[in-house]
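User: I'm putting together a small comparison set for a docking exercise, and I want a reference complex before I start. The sequence is below, and the ligand is iron/sulfur cluster. Could you produce the 3D structure with the ligand included, as structure tokens?
Assistant: Of course. I'll restate your input first, then give the structure tokens for the complex.
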Amino acid sequence: MEQTSDLVADGKIIEEESYLQRSEKYSQIELSHSYNGISLRGKIDFFNTSKKIVHETKRSNKVESAHIWQVKFYLWLLKLNDIEADGGIIEYPKLRVTENVELTDKDIKYLESSVIEIEKLISSNNCPSVINARICKSCSYYDFCYADE
Ligand code: SF4
């Protein structure tokens, strides 16, 4: 759903406008890995190959744990592909702040159990109930979840 999301498009515009000068220093990489038969994929927009740092930009007005876990997932995916990475940095142009991200052994355990839970959810014949939370309004799946309303 991301390619059709205005929020994602908006985020890309912020990236392009705020960080144009970095384009030559960074590589975009697509990674995949089969973990316990579960297909994992990720596209890292900015990976500094010399400093071995993942960069992510967010349009949000606040630092959210989902942003941090997205970068931790990228760091895990790099590790699974035997690509050395020293950490991540999330940049918030609207806030003018940066958040450093590290991947710990405890994080890896959490990610391993999370992808197994997600796989179970995807394989289930029963769709989970909508959560009726504030976050739904900005979720890419909003139209699917609330189609009946
Ligand atoms: S809109 Fe998104 S967050 Fe809300 S219930 Fe659906 S999938 Fe979950």
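The chain has a mean pLDDT of 86. The first strand starts at residue 27 and ends at 35.
User: Thanks, that's exactly what I needed.
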